[in-house]
Design brief:
With about 150 residues, this protein is an alpha+beta fold. The chain is built from six helices and six strands; from the N terminus they run αββββαβαβααα. A two-stranded antiparallel ribbon has the order 1-2. Strands 3-4 form a two-stranded antiparallel ribbon. Strands 5-6 form a two-stranded parallel sheet. The longest helix is centred in the last third of the chain and has 25 residues.
């Protein structure tokens, strides 16, 4: 029984964060409302979590993703991600302008993520059962959407 627990813990260990983590992915509409969530273990890469989630996005829907989703254009043609620089190929002025425009359109997504993180259970160490994390997160997302509608549609 002890060995099984170790393997389960290892699934949630994030080498980047150096701790056991849970990963959450949000899909946010034009109206800044959370329309879908996906959950994974701490080791799962963002792009892999997107591929393995059962969330279907219409081909004509515009996706604004961050740089963790390199290669998303192959799955969804109507996607924009920021340009990345390398040692041999630094960003040109046009690339910098493109990245600035992309980030200024995507800032509303980051604001929505901030509204979720106001609930400290998401921001800090999650000390409850992992099994119910998705349920709790979806409840918090519903509260965030309800508050957003009440404040901006009234």
């Amino acid at each position: 029984a002890k060995k099984g627990r170790k393997n389960k813990q290892r699934q949630h260990y994030s080498g980047k964060k150096k701790r056991h983590t849970l990963k959450t992915q949000l899909i946010i509409s034009d109206e800044n409302e959370i329309i879908a969530t996906a959950f994974g273990t701490g080791r799962t890469h963002d792009f892999r979590l997107f591929r393995e989630s059962v969330i279907h996005i219409a081909p004509e829907t515009m996706l604004l993703a961050d740089s963790g989703y390199q290669g998303l254009q192959k799955l969804h043609t109507c996607t924009t991600i920021p340009k990345k620089a390398t040692k041999k190929h630094p960003l040109t002025k046009a690339d910098k302008v493109y990245n600035h425009d992309h980030s200024s359109r995507r800032i509303f997504v980051e604001h929505t993520i901030r509204r979720v993180k106001v609930f400290r259970i998401i921001k800090e160490t999650y000390r409850n059962r992992r099994r119910r994390f998705g349920l709790r997160f979806n409840l918090i997302a519903a509260v965030v959407n309800m508050e957003w509608r009440r404040n901006h549609w009234a």
